[in-house]
C-alpha cells in the first residue's frame, strides 16, 4: 500500500521500520469512531462550501459502506496499512475514486487521532459506568440481605469492634460510588473536540469546528490548536480513575480471599467463580478474586508508563504519543473484565452469618463498650480503659470471655459494675447503640442503604 505521505521520499520505508511504525494492529478497534468523525467532517466541508454537496454525499455513502462491510465481516483490516485512518481513507479512495482524496481537507492525522480516541474512550466509559452501577446494585442487594449479620470489625487485621456485615459492604458501595463520580468528572473534561486543530496551527480553510463538535456530541471545542493535538491529559485522568477503581476492587478481593479461607470462613464463593487444584482434591481457590487483585498492578503500570512517555515531550504532536493507545486500551479492557466478573461473584457469594458471629464473640470486641459503660457512670475514660484492659487479660489467662465473667469478679475492680452490664456488652446492643451518622447501628445502615438507592435511581 502506498503511503499517503510518500511524495517527499525517494525510497520506500524499510519493512522492519514500517512494522515498527505501524499502529493498525491495535488502533483498528477505533474504526467506528474514525468513520463517524470522517462522516461529520465531510458534512462540515460541504456545509462550508469547501467541497460540493455531491462530493460530500459520495464520501458519506462510501464511508457508510465501509462501516457496514467491516461490521458484517466482509472487509478485513489490511495490516500493511500504517494505521486505521490510512486504511479507511485508502479503502474509500478505492471505492469512490478521487472524491475520497478530498476527505482529508482541513484536517491532519494529528487531530484525527485525537478525535478518535476521545470518541472511543467516551463510548467505553459508558460501558464502564454501567458495570460500576451494576456492582453497586449487587452490593446494595447483599447489604439488604445481611443487615442483621454481626461480624468483627478490624483494625491492623486484629478484631476491634462489632459491626454488621452490611455496614462493611456499604463501605465498598461508597468507594465505587466515588469511582463512578470521579470517572464522570473526567469524561466531562475529555468531552471537547480537537478536530479542526489540524497538524498544530489550524487551517486556512473557513471551517466550522463548532458544527463538528456539536454533531459529535461534544460540549465544545479545544480552544488552542496546539493543545488540541498534544493533549493526552484525558488519558492520564481516565487511567488514574481506573487505577483507583481497581485499587478498590483489589481491597475487596483481598477481603473476599481472607473471608473464604478456612481460617475465617465468613463467606463461601460459588463454584462458578472458584477453581480447584491439580493435586489437592480438597481445594476451592478464589482465583477470580486473586486475578482481580493481580490485574490491579497491570492498570497501575499502564498509568505510570503513559505518564513517563509524556513527561518530556515538547509541543505539539510527537510519534511517542502513539504509545498512549496500547496503555489506555489495555486499562479499559482490564477494568471491564474485572467489573464484569466481580458483580456476579459477589451476587452468588454465600454469607456464613453464624461463623461471623462466633468470631465476634471470641475477639473481646465489646471491650470499648464495657469501658463506655463505666464512663457513663462517672468514671474517667482512662481509668475505665485500664480496668477493662486488666479484665480482658484475666479472661485470656482463664480461657473465658467478658460476657461469662461473674458480677463478683467485675466488682473486684469497681463497684460501678452492676448486672445491667451484661446487656450493655451483648453484641446486638453494641451494634444497636452505635447511633452516630454513618455508624454500624441498624438505623444508620438503613440510611446508608437509602443513600445508595437514591444514587442508583438518579
Our estimate of the beta-strand percent is under 5%
* Radius of gyration computed on alpha carbons: 31 Å
SS-based class? mainly alpha
Strand order of the largest sheet: 1-2
Shape: elongated
- Write down the overall mean pLDDT: 94
Number of strands: 4
Main beta sheet: 2 strands, antiparallel
Order of helix and strand elements from N to C terminus: HHHHHHEEHHHHEHHEHHHHHHH
- Low-pLDDT residue spans: none
Q: If helices are DSSP runs of H or I spanning 4 or more residues, what is the number of helices?
A: 19
End-to-end Cα distance, whole Å, is 51 Å
Helix fraction bin: 55-70%
Descriptive report:
With 458 residues, the protein is mainly alpha-helical. Helix content is 61%, strand content 4%. The protein has 19 helices and four strands. α4 packs across α5 and α6 packs antiparallel against α7. It starts with 14 loop residues before the first helix and ends with a helix. The mean pLDDT is 94.
List keywords for this structure.
single chain, 458 residues, mainly alpha, 61% helix, 4% strand, elongated
What's a quick, concise take on this entry?
With 458 residues, this protein is mainly alpha-helical.
What layout of secondary structure does this protein have?
Blueprint: H1 15-21, H2 24-27, H3 31-47, H4 53-71, H5 84-96, H6 109-145, E1 150-155, E2 158-164, H7 165-190, H8 209-215, H9 225-230, H10 233-259, E3 267-268, H11 287-310, H12 323-347, E4 350-351, H13 353-361, H14 367-376, H15 381-398, H16 407-411, H17 421-424, H18 427-432, H19 442-456
Antiparallel strand pairs: 1-2, 3-4
Helix pairs in contact: 3-4, 3-6, 3-8, 4-5, 6-7, 6-12, 6-19, 7-10, 7-19, 10-11, 10-12, 11-12, 14-15
Amino acid at each position: 500500500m502506498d503511503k499517503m505521505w510518500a511524495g517527499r521520499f525517494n525510497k520506500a520505508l524499510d519493512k522492519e521500520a514500517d512494522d515498527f511504525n505501524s499502529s493498525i494492529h491495535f488502533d483498528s478497534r477505533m474504526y467506528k469512531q474514525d468513520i463517524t468523525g470522517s462522516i461529520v467532517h465531510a458534512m462540515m466541508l460541504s456545509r462550508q462550501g469547501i467541497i460540493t454537496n455531491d462530493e460530500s454525499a459520495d464520501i458519506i455513502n462510501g464511508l457508510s459502506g465501509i462501516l457496514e462491510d467491516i461490521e458484517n465481516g466482509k472487509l478485513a483490516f489490511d495490516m500493511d496499512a500504517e494505521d486505521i485512518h490510512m486504511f479507511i481513507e485508502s479503502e474509500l479512495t478505492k471505492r469512490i475514486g478521487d472524491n475520497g482524496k478530498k476527505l482529508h481537507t482541513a484536517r491532519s492525522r494529528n487531530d484525527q487521532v485525537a478525535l478518535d480516541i476521545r470518541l472511543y474512550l467516551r463510548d467505553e466509559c459508558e460501558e464502564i459506568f454501567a458495570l460500576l452501577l451494576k456492582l453497586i446494585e449487587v452490593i446494595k442487594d447483599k447489604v439488604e440481605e445481611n443487615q442483621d449479620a454481626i461480624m468483627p470489625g478490624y483494625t491492623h487485621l486484629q478484631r476491634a469492634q462489632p459491626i454488621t456485615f452490611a455496614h462493611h459492604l456499604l463501605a465498598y458501595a461508597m468507594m465505587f460510588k466515588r469511582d463512578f463520580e470521579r470517572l464522570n468528572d473526567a469524561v466531562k473534561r475529555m468531552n471537547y473536540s480537537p478536530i479542526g486543530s489540524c497538524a498544530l496551527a489550524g487551517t486556512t480553510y473557513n471551517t466550522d469546528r463548532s458544527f463538528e463538535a456539536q454533531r459529535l456530541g461534544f460540549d465544545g471545542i479545544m480552544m488552542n490548536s496546539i493543545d488540541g493535538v498534544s493533549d493526552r491529559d484525558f488519558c492520564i485522568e481516565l487511567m488514574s480513575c481506573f487505577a483507583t477503581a481497581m485499587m478498590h476492587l483489589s481491597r475487596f478481593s483481598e477481603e473476599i480471599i481472607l473471608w473464604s479461607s478456612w481460617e475465617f470462613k465468613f463467606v463461601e464463593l460459588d463454584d462458578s467463580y472458584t477453581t480447584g487444584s491439580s493435586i489437592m482434591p480438597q481445594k476451592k481457590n478464589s482465583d477470580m478474586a486473586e486475578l482481580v487483585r493481580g490485574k490491579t498492578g497491570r492498570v497501575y503500570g499502564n498509568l505510570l508508563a503513559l505518564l513517563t512517555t509524556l513527561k518530556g515531550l515538547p509541543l505539539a504532536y510527537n510519534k511517542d504519543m502513539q504509545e498512549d493507545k496500547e496503555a489506555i486500551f489495555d486499562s479499559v479492557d482490564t477494568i471491564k473484565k474485572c467489573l464484569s466478573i466481580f458483580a456476579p461473584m459477589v451476587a452468588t457469594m454465600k454469607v456464613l452469618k453464624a461463623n461471623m458471629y462466633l468470631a465476634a464473640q471470641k475477639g473481646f470486641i465489646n471491650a470499648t463498650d464495657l469501658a463506655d459503660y463505666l464512663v457513663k457512670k462517672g468514671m474517667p475514660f482512662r481509668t475505665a480503659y485500664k480496668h477493662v484492659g486488666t479484665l480482658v487479660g484475666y479472661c485470656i489467662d482463664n480461657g473465658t470471655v467478658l460476657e461469662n465473667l461473674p458480677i463478683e469478679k467485675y466488682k473486684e475492680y469497681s463497684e460501678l459494675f452492676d448486672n445491667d452490664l451484661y446487656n450493655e456488652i451483648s453484641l446486638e446492643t453494641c451494634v444497636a447503640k452505635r447511633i452516630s451518622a454513618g455508624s454500624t447501628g441498624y438505623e444508620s445502615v438503613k440510611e446508608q442503604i437509602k443513600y445508595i438507592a437514591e444514587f442508583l435511581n438518579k
